[in-house]
Design goal:
heterodimer, A: 697 residues, alpha+beta, Neuraminidase, Serine Threonine Protein Phosphatase 5, Tetratricopeptide repeat, four-stranded antiparallel β-sheet, 29 strands, B: 736 residues, Immunoglobulin-like, eight-stranded parallel β-sheet
Chain lengths: 697, 736
C-alpha cells in the first residue's frame, strides 16, 4: 500500500502529465506475423495487426498496476482487474475517463482477494471471480454487492473441495458459468436466480496408450493398489468467452503427455452449443492441421476471446503470441512474441476485443496493449467474412488483393477458386485450387471441366479412339502377314522368358528352373520401372488426388528406398528359406522376386494414368486396379515359392510371413549399427573440435 | 627456376604490402589515433567537499569534488550546470540502497573470475572513494583520477579534460605489479549518471535508436526492462540463432546519445571503443527517479561451448585491441539545445572539414532481378533461376514511369549476381541467367545501381570450404547463425556464415575490378556498411579491426565508382555514401521509448541522400508518414513477375511487389509526396519537433516547413491551414 502511495505521489508531483495516448504509430512493428502455406510450412505473412497504443496505470493516472489478471470490455468501458492491488480500474475508451470501481457491501468496502476473473453483462451487472474470498461477487454498476455466489450445497460438488472461482462469464438469459480450480466436471452453472444448476462442457478423457496400459494392469490390482494409482480426469477448462448468440468458446490446457507437458493443439479450442457439444470443426487442411499441432505442442493457451466480427483470438503465454482463427478454425494469422517492445510481451495473461481491435493484458509489464487491423488485415477480414457468409463472388476482389499482399495465404487461392467455380470458370478455378493444394476443390472443378470437355469434344475423342484401335489392328495384321511375331521373338530370349513367367507363372517359372535361365537385364529393367513408378506416383499423379511440391521429389531417395526394400526382401527370403530347406538359390530368388513385381508395376502405372482422368469420388476404381495388381503379384510370388523352393501352399505362406519378420529384424540390426557408427563419428568429431581449440588457443 | 621463385616471392610480398587490408596500414591508423596525456600535479586534499575548478574552455568550466571525485561542468552562456552525479541521491524515494550507492559513482566496473565464471559489479564509490583509496592529478585542461581496484588487481584511470570546446573522458587501466591472472574486467561504464533527467522534469533523453527516439522524463515506468543495444549491431559470434535478432533488430547506427534538460542539452559521442559499446537507457522509475543513458563497454566476450556432454564457458578479451576508451561530451544551449541541435552538431563532427552538399529527391525503387527456386525434373532435384525482372522489363518499368511524368528515378537492382542468389561467397560479377548487363547499361532515364548486398554473409558451401574460408568463433570453429522456424522457434537446417577477414581482404579488390570490367559505374553495397563481427581465425580480427577493413573497402568503392549506395549505413561508412538506402525513419518500439525523431536523416542531410525502407515491404501502415516526417526519399519495391512466382522462395515474405498491379496506386502516392518534396530544392533539414503528440514539423534551411499529422483527426494550424488526418502538408517559411 505504501508503495502505491509513494508512486502516486511521485506521479502527481510530475510537472507535466502525458496524455493517455502514447502514440506508437510512428514506430516499427517488432514481430513477424506468420501463417501456414499449402505445404504446412510456417511462412512469413504481411502483418494483419499492429500495435498502436499501450496503457499503463501510470499513463492513465491510476497508479501502477500490479500483476493484473483480467480485462473486460463492455460498450466503451475497459475494466482492468488489477489483482495485485485488489482493485478494478475503469477506463473510458472514447472519453479517456478513469475511475476506480469500488466494491461495497451495505456501505462497507469489500476488499477483493486474489480476484482473477471479471465479466460485465448487458445490464451493467459486474461479476468478479474472487478465489481468495471463495466467491463470485455480483455487483451493480455502482459497485454495490447484489449477491455473493459461494460454494453450492449439493452432493454433486465434492465434499472437501474448496470453491475457487477463476473465471466467470454469462449468457443472454442470465445464467453464469464459473470456472473453478479443481473442478473437472466442467464449468459450474448458476441460473439467473444464482442457484446452482449443474455443470457444463466437461472435456472427454483422451484415450492414450498410457491410459490403456494402466487400465489393463488395473484389472489385476487390488483395491489399495488401484487407489494409489493416478486417476484420469478430464482437463479443466482454462478460460472461456461467450458469443452474442450464446455459444461458449473455451480453451483447455490440452492432454497430458509424459507427465511433463501438455500437448496443445487446435482441438484445445472448442465451441460449445447450449447443449454442451463441441461444434467447432476445423477446416484446416490436413497438412496445415498437422503442422499446427506438431509445431505448437508445447505452447500454453491461456485465454480466449470471440470478437464481434466473428474471429476467435487465443493467446499463448509461452511464446507471447496471439493466434486468430475464423469461424471455421482456419488460422488467419499468428503474431506477437516475447520481448521488450510494444507488441511483444513478458507474460500475456488475457485477451479481449473492442470492435476489430484486440487488447492484450501483460501481467509482468502491467500494461494493456491495443492492436488494430492494418490495411491488409482489413482486406483479409472482409474477404473472409464474405466468403464464410457464402458470398463467394463478392469475395473475389478482396481475395485478389490478399493474394498480392500475401502470396502464401492459402485461403485466398481457395476463396478465388470457389468463386470461379461458382461462376462456371472451371479451368481457372483448377489453377487456383492447384496453388492452394486443395485436392477436393480441384477434383470438383475437374469433374465439371471434364464433363464440359467431353461434351464439346466427344466426336473427336471417339474418332481418336477408333483410329487408335484401327491402327493397332492394322499394325498387328501387317506384322503377322510378314511372319513377324513380336511376342515369340521376345520370349525366345532370356529376358523375354523371365518376362513371360510374370504372366504365366506356372509354366514360366518351371522353364526358368529347369533350364536354369536368369537375366540380369530383367532385374535392372524391373528396378528402373519400380523407381520410375515411384517418381510418377509422387510427381505425376492426378491433381484431384495429390498435389505435391515437385521440388520435394527426389529420384535418389526413391531409388534408394526401393533398392533397400528389394534387397531386404531377397536377403530375408534367402536366409529363411535356407532355414526351411528351400531349394532356390540367391539369384533365383532375385529373378522370381523381380518377375512377381511386374503385375504390381503395371497396375501402378495404370493407376497413375487413370488418376489423370478420374476425380476423388472415383478413387475406388484406382484402388481396385492396384488391388488386382497386388493380388496378382502375390499369387505369382506364391507360385514362385512353390516352384523354386518346392514349398507347399501352407509353407509358402509361412515363408512369406517369415520373410516379412526377417525384413524387420534386419532393419533393427541396421539401425543399431547405424546408431553405433553415429556415436563413434560424434566422438571423433568432438575430439577433433577439442583438439582444434587446444591447438589454436 | 630460382629466379622465378624469387620473382614470385617479390610479387607476393609487393602485392601483400599493397593490399588495402594490410595490418601495417591498420596499425598505422591506430597509431595516428593515439594521444598521450601529459603527467599531472598531484592533488592531495581529498577530503574537501568543495568543487575545485580545474579547467576552462570558452564558456565551459570544469570542477571536481575531491571527496567524491564527482564532476561539475558549468556553461556560463546559459548558466546551466551539469553534475556527473545526482546531488540528492540519498533522498531518492524510488531508488533502493544499492542503487543509491551506484548513483554516487563515476565508474562502474564488472569483473569476471575466469576460473569460477562468477561476475561481480563494483563501482569506484564503494571500492575506492569511501575508503579514500584514490589519487588525483591535475593536468592542463583537466584532471586524472586513479583508482586502484584491489578486487581486480588493476589501477583504473579516468581522465577528464577539455579539447576543442568539448569535454573528453578517457578510461584505461594497468595491471598491478602482482596482478590477478584469473580476474579480468568484463565491462565498464564511465560517468553513467551524467546524461540524465529527473522524474517530471521538462526534457528527455535522446537515443539513436533507429531514426532516433526520445525518452521523456514524464514517462514513468516502474516495470519492464531497461533499453540495451549494441552499437553497430550484435556480435554474431556470441549468438547461435537468429531468433534473438528478430525481436532485437540492429538499430543503433550512430554512437551518440544525449539529454535535454530544461533549456540546455548535452550530447555524448563515443569516440574510441564504440564497437564494443552497449547503449543502455532507463526511464524514470525503473531503478530510480532518474532517467539516464550511458554506454557500457564490453571488454570480455564469453560464449557457452559444448564439447560432447560438457558445457563450458569460453572467454575472449578485447582489451589488447582497445587500449583506452574515449567519449566526447558537447554541451548545447539556446536554439541548439534539442535533438535537432544535436543532429547538426554531430553532423559537423562527422564530416570534419568536408563540405556538405545539396540534397536530391527522386523516386527510389528496389527492383528484384531474379530468385532461386527449387525444382525437380523426373525426380532429379535441382535449383533453377527464375527471372523476376530482366533488362527489357526494367526498361519497360522506367518507360511507364516516365509516361506518368516521373523523370527522376533511381533503381537499386537486386539479386542479379549469380553468386549472391545462390547464397555463395561473392567473388564474381557474373549475372544470373537471363540478366544481361549490356542491356542494362543501355537503359536511359534512370540511375541504376546494381546491388551486391551480402558481401560478408553467405549460406552456401561445403563443410571444408567453411573450415577454410569462414570466420571463426572463439571455439575456433566456423560460427554460424542458424535460421529458426517462425512457428516454434526451433532451428532449421539453414545457417548463415561470415567470410573470414583474410578471405575478404584477398577477394574484395578483385571483386571491384571485376565489377568495373562489367561496365558497372554505380554500385550498391549492403552488409559491409551496417554490421560488424569478430573473426578468431589466424591472427584474428576484433570488431574494431573489422570496422577498419570494411571502412577501407567502402572508401575504395567510393573512389572506384561514380556513385555509391549503402544500406542503412553506420556512422563510419555513411560519409562515403552518395545514397543511403533503408535509412531508419522510426524507432524500434522498445517499451521505454516515446517519440520517433528523424535524427539519422537530419545528420545525413547534406552528407548523403537518405531513402526510407520500401513502403510496401511489410513496414507499418503509416510508413509513408514516417518517411515524409524524416525527409527520406520515397521508395517502392517492385518486380515484373507474378506474385505466385515467389512462393517457396527466399522472397516469399514480400507483399504487393508486382509492378502491373501496384503501379497506379504507387504513382499517385509518389506524386502526393513529390508535391511536397519538390519544394525542398536541394535544401538540407534544419530542425524537427512535435507540435503535439500526433503532429510533427520538419523544417528545412530554405524555410520550408512540412507538417505531418499521424492522428486520426484533422489538425488546424494557427494560420488556419488544415492538415488532414494521416496526411501531410508543406508551408513556405523564412530560411535559416
Amino acid at each position: 500500500m505504501k508503495k502505491i502511495v509513494k508512486r502516486l505521489i511521485s506521479v502527481l508531483a510530475a510537472a507535466t502529465v502525458l496524455t493517455a495516448f502514447a502514440p506508437t504509430a510512428s514506430a516499427d512493428v517488432p514481430y513477424r506475423s506468420y501463417n501456414y502455406n499449402s505445404y504446412g510450412e510456417a511462412v512469413e505473412s504481411a502483418n494483419i495487426y499492429e500495435p498502436y497504443l499501450v496503457l499503463s496505470g501510470e499513463k492513465i493516472n491510476a497508479g501502477g498496476f500490479i500483476a493484473p489478471n483480467d480485462v473486460f470490455v463492455k460498450g466503451d468501458i475497459l475494466y482492468i482487474l488489477d489483482s495485485g492491488n485488489n482493485r478494478i480500474v475503469k477506463y473510458g475508451l472514447t472519453d479517456k475517463a478513469v475511475s476506480e470501481y469500488l466494491v461495497s457491501d451495505n456501505g462497507n468496502s469489500v476488499e477483493l482477494n486474489k480476484a482473477t476473473g471479471i465479466y460485465v453483462d448487458d445490464g451493467g451487472t459486474v461479476y468478479i471471480a474472487d478465489s481468495g474470498n471463495q466467491c463470485v461477487w455480483v455487483c451493480g454498476a455502482d459497485g454495490a454487492v447484489k449477491a455473493q455466489v459461494t460454494k453450492p450445497e449439493t452432493e454433486y460438488f465434492q465434499e472437501g473441495l474448496e470453491f475457487l472461482p477463476r473465471k466467470v462469464v454469462g449468457d443472454a438469459v442470465g445464467n453464469i458459468y464459473v470456472q473453478c480450480t479443481g473442478v473437472y466436471e466442467g464449468l459450474v452453472i448458476f441460473d439467473s436466480e444464482l442457484d446452482f444448476s449443474g455443470f457444463f462442457g466437461s472435456e472427454k478423457v483422451q484415450t492414450t496408450a498410457q491410459l490403456l496400459r494402466n487400465y489393463f494392469w488395473k484389472q489385476f490390482m487390488t483395491g489399495e493398489q488401484k487407489e494409489a494409482m493416478a486417476n484420469y480426469v478430464p482437463s479443466e477448462i482454462y478460460s472461456m468467452d461467450m458469443s452474442a448468440d450464446n455459444f461458449l468458446y473455451t480453451i483447455t490446457p490440452g492432454s497430458l503427455v509424459s507427465g511433463l507437458s501438455y500437448k496443445q493443439s487446435a482441438d484445445s479450442i472448442r465451441c460449445l452449443n447450449p447443449k454442451g457439444s463441441d461444434i467447432l470443426e476445423s477446416f484446416m487442411s490436413k497438412d496445415v492441421s498437422r503442422a499446427f499441432d506438431n509445431e505448437n505442442r508445447y505452447l500454453n493457451f491461456i485465454d480466449i476471446c470471440y470478437s464481434e466480427s466473428g474471429f476467435i483470438n487465443v493467446i499463448d503465454n509461452k511464446q507471447g503470441r496471439i493466434y486468430q482463427f475464423d469461424n471455421n478454425m482456419q488460422l488467419v494469422s499468428a503474431f506477437g512474441g516475447v520481448g521488450d517492445y510494444t507488441g511483444t510481451f513478458q507474460q500475456p495473461i488475457a485477451v479481449e476485443s473492442y470492435g476489430d481491435d484486440i487488447l492484450v493484458l501483460d501481467s509482468i509489464k502491467n500494461t494493456v496493449t491495443f492492436f488494430s487491423l492494418t490495411k491488409t488485415g482489413e482486406t483479409v477480414h472482409r474477404a473472409l467474412t464474405l466468403y464464410n457468409d457464402g458470398n463467394y463472388t463478392a469475395s473475389i476482389e478482396p481475395w485478389y488483393e490478399v493474394m498480392e499482399a500475401n502470396p502464401n495465404f492459402q485461403l485466398a487461392y481457395i476463396g478465388v477458386g470457389n468463386a470461379l467455380f461458382n461462376e462456371g470458370e472451371y479451368k481457372r478455378a483448377m489453377e487456383y485450387y492447384e496453388i492452394a493444394r486443395d485436392t477436393t476443390g480441384y477434383s470438383n472443378a475437374y469433374r465439371e471441366y471434364r464433363v464440359m470437355f467431353m461434351r464439346e469434344n466427344f466426336i473427336w475423342i471417339a474418332l481418336l479412339l477408333v483410329a487408335v484401335c484401327v491402327i493397332f489392328k492394322a499394325f498387328k495384321a501387317i506384322l503377322n502377314k510378314k511372319g513377324i511375331f513380336l511376342s515369340k521373338r521376345l520370349y525366345a530370349t532370356d529376358f523375354g522368358m523371365v518376362l513371360y513367367s510374370s504372366f504365366h507363372p506356372m509354366v514360366g517359372f518351371d522353364r526358368l528352373r529347369t533350364r536354369k535361365i536368369k537375366s540380369n537385364a530383367f532385374l535392372v529393367f524391373v528396378y528402373l520401372l519400380l523407381v520410375l513408378l515411384g517418381v510418377c506416383e509422387q510427381q505425376y499423379m492426378g491433381k484431384a488426388f495429390v498435389i505435391i511440391d515437385s521440388s520435394e521429389v527426389n529420384i535418389i531417395s526413391v531409388a534408394l528406398v526401393r533398392l533397400a526394400l528389394l534387397l531386404l526382401f531377397v536377403v530375408a527370403n534367402w536366409a529363411f528359406s535356407e532355414l526351411m530347406t528351400g531349394k532356390a538359390t540367391f539369384s533365383q530368388i532375385c529373378t522370381f522376386t523381380a518377375a512377381s513385381l511386374m503385375p504390381y508395376i503395371i497396375s501402378g502405372f495404370i493407376r497413375v494414368i487413370m488418376s489423370r482422368f478420374l476425380v476423388e469420388n472415383e478413387a475406388v476404381f484406382m484402388s481396385v486396379v492396384l488391388s488386382v495388381g497386388i493380388i496378382c503379384s502375390f499369387v505369382v510370388l506364391m507360385v514362385a515359392f512353390a516352384v523354386f523352393h518346392e514349398f507347399e501352399l501352407g509353407k509358402s505362406l509361412f515363408s512369406f510371413v517369415a520373410t516379412a519378420i526377417g525384413m524387420l529384424l534386419i532393419v533393427v540390426l541396421v539401425f543399431l549399427i547405424y546408431n553405433l557408427t553415429q556415436n563413434v563419428i560424434d566422438f571423433i568429431k568432438t575430439l577433433f573440435s577439442e583438439l582444434m581449440f587446444r591447438i589454436n588457443s | 627456376m630460382k629466379k622465378i621463385i624469387a620473382l614470385a616471392l617479390t610479387i607476393c610480398i609487393a602485392s601483400v604490402s599493397l593490399t588495402a587490408c594490410s595490418s601495417e596500414e591498420i596499425a598505422k591508423e591506430a597509431a595516428v589515433d593515439s594521444y598521450s596525456l601529459p603527467k599531472g600535479e598531484s592533488y592531495t586534499d581529498i577530503k574537501s567537499n568543495e568543487f575545485v575548478p580545474c579547467a576552462q574552455s570558452g564558456d565551459l568550466s570544469l570542477s571536481f569534488q575531491p571527496s567524491t571525485t564527482q564532476l561539475k561542468v558549468e556553461n556560463s552562456k546559459d548558466g546551466s550546470v551539469w553534475y556527473s552525479n545526482p546531488q540528492n541521491a540519498s533522498e531518492d524515494i524510488n531508488a533502493k540502497q544499492l542503487v543509491k550507492l551506484r548513483m554516487m559513482s563515476t565508474l562502474e566496473i564488472e569483473y569476471t573470475n575466469l576460473s569460477t565464471k562468477k561476475r561481480t559489479t563494483i563501482n569506484n564509490y564503494t571500492s575506492n572513494v569511501k575508503s579514500g583509496k584514490y589519487e588525483i592529478s591535475m593536468i592542463e585542461n583537466g584532471v586524472i583520477f586513479k583508482y586502484p581496484f584491489t578486487e581486480v588487481g588493476k589501477n583504473v584511470f579516468l581522465a577528464v579534460y577539455f579539447e576543442k570546446g568539448a569535454l573528453l573522458t578517457r578510461f584505461w587501466y594497468e595491471d598491478f605489479d602482482e596482478k590477478k591472472p584469473d580476474v579480468e574486467i568484463s565491462a565498464v561504464s564511465v560517468l553513467p549518471y551524467l546524461v540524465r533527467g529527473f522524474m517530471g522534469e521538462e526534457g528527455y533523453l535522446f537515443l539513436p535508436d533507429g531514426s532516433g527516439a526520445t525518452v521523456d522524463f514524464s514517462n514513468i515506468v516502474y516495470s519492464g526492462n531497461a533499453y540495451a543495444r549494441n552499437i553497430y549491431g550484435y556480435e554474431p559470434t556470441l549468438i547461435t540463432s537468429d531468433y534473438y535478432l528478430d525481436v532485437n533488430k540492429n538499430s543503433v547506427y550512430l554512437p551518440v546519445y544525449g539529454a535535454k534538460v530544461g533549456e540546455s542539452a548535452v550530447m555524448a559521442i563515443c569516440e574510441k571503443g564504440a564497437e564494443y559499446g552497449v547503449l543502455t537507457a532507463e526511464a524514470c522509475g525503473q531503478t530510480s527517479s532518474y532517467a539516464r543513458a550511458y554506454v557500457s563497454y564490453k571488454l570480455l566476450n564469453s560464449i557457452e561451448y559444448k564439447v560432447g556432454n560438457t558445457t563450458t564457458e569460453l572467454f575472449d578479451k578485447v582489451g589488447s585491441s582497445l587500449d583506452y576508451i574515449t567519449t566526447r561530451y558537447i554541451f548545447l544551449d539556446g536554439e541548439d539545445a534539442d535533438y535537432s541541435g544535436m543532429a547538426r552538431a554531430y553532423r559537423d563532427y562527422l564530416i570534419g572539414d568536408l563540405q556538405l552538399k545539396d540534397t536530391a529527391t527522386a523516386l527510389y525503387t528496389d527492383i528484384y532481378a531474379s530468385v532461386i527456386k527449387k525444382a525437380s525434373t523426373v525426380g532429379v532435384p535441382h535449383n533453377k533461376t527464375v527471372s523476376l525482372t530482366d533488362a527489357a522489363e526494367l526498361e519497360g518499368i522506367i518507360e511507364r514511369l516516365n509516361a506518368e511524368g516521373i523523370e527522376d528515378i533511381t533503381v537499386r537492382y537486386r539479386l542479379w549476381n549469380s553468386d549472391e542468389i545462390k547464397g555463395k561467397k561473392i567473388k564474381s560479377a557474373n549475372s544470373a541467367a537471363g540478366i544481361s548487363f549490356k542491356a542494362i547499361k543501355n537503359i536511359k532515364n534512370a540511375e541504376i545501381y546494381p546491388a551486391v548486398l551480402s558481401l560478408h554473409t553467405y549460406s552456401n558451401g561445403s563443410y571444408f570450404d567453411r573450415l577454410i574460408n569462414a570466420a571463426k568463433s572463439i571455439t575456433q570453429l566456423p560460427f554460424s547463425w542458424k535460421k529458426h522456424k517462425l512457428s516454434n522457434l526451433n532451428e532449421t537446417g539453414e545457417a548463415e556464415y561470415r567470410v573470414s577477414i583474410d578471405w575478404f581482404c584477398k577477394n574484395s579488390d578483385k571483386l571491384i575490378e571485376r565489377l568495373k570490367s562489367k561496365g558497372i559505374s554505380k554500385l550498391a553495397l549492403g552488409d559491409v556498411a551496417n554490421s560488424l563481427y569478430c573473426d578468431f581465425k589466424g591472427e584474428g580480427a576484433k570488431r574494431d579491426k573489422t570496422r577498419l577493413v570494411m571502412s577501407e573497402f567502402i572508401k575504395q568503392s567510393d573512389e572506384a565508382f561514380e556513385g555509391l549506395m549503402l544500406d542503412a549505413a553506420n556512422a563510419y561508412a555513411a560519409p562515403f555514401a552518395d545514397i543511403i538506402y533503408n535509412a531508419p525513419v522510426c524507432h524500434s518500439n522498445h517499451d521505454i521509448l516515446c517519440k520517433s525523431v528523424p535524427f539519422y536523416t537530419m545528420v545525413m542531410s547534406g552528407i548523403a541522400d537518405c531513402v526510407a525502407p520500401a513502403y510496401n515491404s511489410g513496414v507499418a501502415d503509416n510508413a509513408l508518414l514516417n518517411t515524409v516526417a524524416s525527409g527520406a526519399g520515397f521508395c517502392v519495391a517492385w518486380m515484373s513477375a507474378e506474385m505466385t512466382e515467389l512462393s517457396g522462395t527466399q522472397l516469399s515474405g514480400l507483399s504487393n511487389v508486382n509492378f502491373a498491379q501496384t503501379v497506379d496506386d504507387t504513382v499517385s502516392l509518389y506524386k502526393k509526396v513529390d508535391a511536397v518534396y519538390s519544394k525542398i530544392n536541394g535544401s538540407r533539414i534544419y530542425a524537427h519537433n512535435y507540435i503535439n503528440d500526433s503532429v510533427s514539423l520538419t523544417e528545412y534551411e530554405n524555410g520550408l516547413q512540412i507538417y505531418v499529422n499521424f492522428g486520426k483527426e484533422p489538425f488546424v494550424l494557427e494560420d488556419g491551414t488544415q492538415i488532414p488526418a494521416e496526411s501531410f502538408t508543406a508551408r513556405e517559411g523564412e530560411g535559416q
